Amino acid sequence: MSIRAARRTAGIRYANREVVQLAEEAQRRGRKLLNLNIGDPNIFGFRTPECIQEAMIRAIRENHNGYSHSSGLAEARAAIRRQAESRGLRKVQEVLVTNGGSEAIDMALSALVNSGDNVLLPAPGYPLYAALLSRLEAETRRYRLDESNNWQPDIEHMAEQIDGRTRAIVLINPNNPTGCVYSRETIEAVIDLCRGHKLVLISDEIYDRILFNGHEHVPSASLADDVCIVTINGLSKNYIAPGLRCGWSITSGPAGLCEDYLQGMRKLSRVRLSAGHPQQHAIAPALLGAQEHLPPLCDILSRRARFCAERLNAIEGVQCVEPQGAFYAFPSLQIAGRDEDFVRELILETGVIVVQGSGFGLQGQPSYFRIVTLPGDEVLAEAFDRIEDFLGSWRRRHPFTEEAAAPAL
Q1: What predicted TM-score, i.e. pTM, was given to this entire model?
Q2: pLDDT the model gives residue 275
């Protein structure tokens, strides 16, 4: 008799990584893989800024290889606070340095929810949140992002999801997987809901410097100092260093409102001893340095985002809102059958690796899939040619009927 896994693991899904197994099978079948599935800029030729590399090497050579303070290196936390306050964040109560933004999210949720509580997540939205809530035996409640309004949150639908067991609303801005950048009015409306229902706002801003065509990112915590707001950020995306696993949370709002919750997060930070130490020495040089890598990075990604949207929209039956930031696009298509089956066969038959929309919380019709816009134009063009050919083949094998369509969330 085998040893049974804990019940809390039963509902955990993470589609971004699960497609890797299909990719390995496609490779065994001799397919040339085109990786459009994971937001890792380094594997597509983008390089971590020199100031980060030099700071880490120096830290290792100077033997900063033991534990750091559980909350993070003092100078790193000071730099994070300084940058946050320069961007308008008010009443910053705590900065915690974490092993990537993922651990910051984990701590923020684990210190907040009890079994049976619920948290509002965007649909579509980054799947880690739902996976963690499943582990915590808490409920995921999805609010719609409006594709017809450049993927802005549907505030009315969001408000309908709130009840007496709701503890937090999660914003991902810029959004993963759509690349949408939220307007000031949208964020203010979400803050009003948090204020009225005494909820925590978890504002995931990990892509806040990767913006296109004049779009402005407004930090949620710059718009209110009377609501408990946890801002998630890190070096992984803006500073092209996901493998360093260097993230942080910034908790702001009234001291009395936040304090008990903060004590819970501090306990969790102490239990795991510390975040990785050498990479914390790179935080201050990264945040307070010249930011010279950002203009060319945003220029390249802006052009690729536009190319992706134009090429996808040229495929019959596919629609794609042009991303405003980050490095993803989230096209829709009308197909018969489950999006998981479509993506599975796409990967196995063509080697093009994408992630199905249901992995980000959207079910039914239209179907969606996420691509990363990081690869070069030649790779993207080849991938879209393969997708277009495969889509024609799929439709011949699986005719779509309007009667079979079920609306998505």
Answers
A1: 0.94
A2: 95
